[in-house]
Specification:
29% of the residues lie in helices and 34% in strands. With 177 residues, it is an alpha+beta fold. The chain has an 8-stranded mixed beta sheet with strand order 1-2-3-4-5-6-8-7, with helices on both faces. The structure holds coenzyme A. The site of coenzyme A (COA) has 22 residues, from strand 5, helix 4 and helix 5.
Length: 177
């Protein structure tokens, strides 16, 4: 697979690679329990948690394990969230989060459309997919708006540590060609 784009530009957003200087902005949403409720990392307790995350991004990008962009507003360049994708052979899965003040403005859908358009244009990719907690109505709706179909429930699939240490059920969504 060719290296993913360093930046993706939409009408209102720029998705770009993170820098260490983004730590305070990442902490701003990473510290919010409403944002992290259905995410796999513990709610950030200090800006050091954001720094630790950002410090791991370059190696994961280079190895292909995970490509993470920050979602920024085109207008004022503010960081409002993140969008990640993980290529594995012929499949790519996606994940995302936005700071609470930026919910329900279509930003996740807009960012997702750019990532899906890029991924769907790769000849080796047949499956673009994601999982979301069965209670995460907002994320399920985003995935539907990205043209994905709910394929089923993966029972006891993933731990969302901010809810409980027990693995929880996830919906699995995909679009394929
Ligand atoms: C999930 C999340 C990224 C959605 O972002 P968003 O920018 O608010 O989503 P959009 O504005 O693009 O909305 C997409 C659709 O979801 C709907 N939606 C958004 N939030 C919703 C909510 N809380 N409840 C019900 N529907 C919701 C929107 O109405 C829209 O559907 P519509 O066009 O039919 O009205 C955001 O809620 C978030 O960051 N949550 C915390 C992190 C998270 O759960 N990430 C996903 C992990 S799988």
């Amino acid at each position: 697979m060719p290296p993913p784009p360093e930046a993706l530009i939409t009408d209102r957003l720029v998705l770009r690679r993170p820098a260490m200087s983004d730590a305070p902005a990442v902490y701003e949403y990473g510290r919010d329990p409403d944002v992290t409720r259905y995410l796999i990392f513990p709610t950030h307790r200090s800006v050091a948690d954001a720094e630790n995350f950002l410090a791991t991004c370059p190696a994961r990008w280079e190895s292909g394990e995970e490509h993470c962009w920050l979602i920024t507003l085109r207008d004022d360049r503010r960081v409002i969230g993140s969008f990640a994708c993980r290529p594995r052979g012929h499949a790519i899965d996606i994940g995302y989060a936005l700071g609470r003040p930026h919910w329900r403005r279509g930003y996740a859908t807009e960012a997702g459309q750019a990532v899906v358009a890029w991924a769907a244009g790769l000849p080796e990719v047949y499956r673009i997919w994601a999982v979301c907690d069965v209670e995460n109505t907002a994320s399920a709706r985003v995935l539907e708006k990205l043209g994905m179909t709910r394929e089923g429930i993966l029972r006891r699939w993933i731990v969302h540590p901010n809810i409980s240490p027990e693995p929880r059920d996830s919906y699995v969504y995909a679009r394929v060609r």
